[in-house]
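Hi support team,

I submitted a single chain yesterday and got back a structure, but I'm not sure I'm reading the token output correctly. Could someone confirm the output below corresponds to the sequence I sent? I've pasted both exactly as they appear in my results page.

Thanks,
R.
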Amino acid sequence: MIPGWILPLSALTPLVLAFAGWCRPGRRILPLLAVLALAPSLVTLLFLPVDTTFRLAKGHLEVLWSWDELAQGFLGFTVLGWGLAAGYAAGYLRTHPRRSVFWVCFLAAMSGNLQLILAGDVLSFYTGLTMMGFAAWGLVTLEATPNALRAGRLYLAMVVLGEVLVLPALIYAVLEAGTLRLGVLQAAWPIEGPAWMAVGLLWAGFGIKAGMAPLHFWLPVAHPAAPTPASAVLSGCMIKTGLLGWLRLLPVEGPVVPVLALAFVSTGVLNLVGGGLAGICQRRAKAALAYSSLQAMGMLMLMTACLFWEPSLRAVGVSLIVGYAGFHGLHKVGLFLAAGVSPVWPRARALAWVSLGLLTASYAGVPGLAGDRIKLQVKTLWEAVPPGLEPWWNPVLAIGAALTFALVGSAAWMMRPRPRAPGSFAGSAAMVWILAVAAAVGLPWLGSAATVRVPSWRALLPLVAGAMIWGLLRARPGEEVAQAAAPHPTADPAAPASPAPGASAPRRGLAHLEEQLAGPAAALAVLGLLLIMLLAGLA
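Hi R., thanks for writing in. Yes, this is the structure output for that exact sequence:
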């Protein structure tokens, strides 16, 4: 029998190891400590019975860790994502001059992420949220370049804004409910006017964490600025904490529920379509992948809206939302890790091509792969869509699917294997990346029998449209992002290269503007035609 104290041990072990690693004797084994830090969480995930709790109390103060189905689902892909990123970073950052800073911030952010997943009370939850947010700032600014510092300032400002929005709402909820327990808070929301304001603050505060438009602008700047393994956990794991906050704390009944549903639909469509349109115009792989994360969060917002429309679907719906979050998290970890390996692995170019292509096709929802399976399961939630929204619901989803295919296809092409000399990190990091691809593509099939379906022409239409958009993007003017081998992120393969000696100077003025807008303008023009095709085919 696993004791309940394994829950706080799982959350606090990375933090303790971060302090131990900061001491000089522990710096050499920081990569090993980062992997070992996940051992208690893995034991919890595999052996601890659901509905286990661990409580510490002193007078009126109570600290609670809770292990329920929601925590189990989030912890599964979170542990795997952090573990893959840690194994990858061990080789990727082997020669980096600031690797000790990275590992300490990495462990602290990991501890905060695990803490808020396992928290059963407001104090533990908010502590984990804050620790994760501020520790991740050290990952974003690790390179200390002007771009990294600018991204860090923007990221830090939005972290503080998110905390400022969430804290007063939590204080109000605790005072009204008379308890710190998260489960009680969610069921005890009052219906008076101040409660509406508190709910709105929670929705917006967690929306910043989740990259919700129009509060998303920090994410496409901060995620690409971080080293590749940090970008993987930022987009694959930490961005989901906003979703967890929504599921844990927003009320499930009362007059505010329909308003929440409408808010989630509005921002979800904006993320799904707007994120895709912005993403296909990017010239850097990691920036494009950051926008694809916004798209995925838009899909999760639409799924969350269905829970508020139809409370009877909540049990099944939460399970589907967690499954989709895990699907996106593992695929995004694999895609971000590919940015540092795939272009510089010429000794196994065939394996790199196959792995990258399989991961991209699975994420885009090609029939027969994991993404297609997840989308079939999610259709259960669309039964809750109100009749007034049904005429445009499927067209919006189809448009989002087409943009997703074009976006991840464009990012994958920028990360394609090149005949270059491998960097010193390529061997060990490449093996971890292959494991990430196998986990992302294979794990969604576990637990049930595989089924093969023959897709209809309407199901294939978004993929065809996405392929056409991708083809147009490949033909747009302008230089393609250069990729080069590097032993650490100071010359990240996903970053733009410096101009070669003798190259023409950058164009200025109207000529420069014309060059920058020619590709996106052409892409959007043809995209408009493709969207008309989609609307006609799905009407």
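A quick pointer for reading it: The chain has one domain: 6-446+456-493+511-538. Let us know if anything else looks off.

Best,
Support desk
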